[in-house]
Write a structure and sequence with these properties.
The chain is mostly beta strands. It is built from two helices and eight strands, in the order E-E-H-E-E-E-E-E-E-H. The radius of gyration is 15 Å and the shape is globular.
Length: about 130
């Protein structure tokens, strides 16, 4: 059996995927992969997702340069969620790793506090300078 056949794909042929940073264990982002994206990720050693809004494969960092180097691919106990342990690379070596399209390290930058969502992580780079 092919390892891809063990994944429980949803009705749209997608699997939820979590990107977690190696070392810090920060959850950087959540996205979806289809069979081709997961196969390409394993082949390239870099994260490739399926963009539902664009209806196409999306190689993380293709526009921003913020590539995710994959260290491990894991499948959960129900075979329906993929966890990737990644190294979040910046566009240039001295830049911090930015996973979020808002210019933040992680997409999970809002914290529920006092009955409201509060932004608790800074913008590391203006998204206008990231995406051209």
């Amino acid at each position: 059996m092919n390892w891809l056949d063990e994944v429980k794909w949803d009705a749209q042929g997608l699997v939820p995927t979590i990107a977690q940073e190696v070392g810090s264990n920060d959850v950087l982002m959540f996205a979806f992969m289809n069979r081709e994206a997961l196969a390409r990720t394993a082949e390239l050693g870099e994260a490739v997702y399926f963009s539902r809004s664009r209806n196409r494969l999306w190689h993380k960092g293709e526009e921003s340069g913020n590539v995710q180097k994959v260290h491990e691919l894991r499948l959960d106990c129900d075979n329906d969620v993929v966890l990737m342990k990644v190294e979040q690379l910046g566009h240039e070596a001295h830049e911090p790793g930015i996973a979020c399209h808002t210019g933040r390290h992680s997409c999970f930058f809002r914290l529920l506090k006092g009955g409201e969502w509060r932004t608790v992580e800074p913008v590391l780079k203006d998204p206008e300078r990231i995406y051209k």
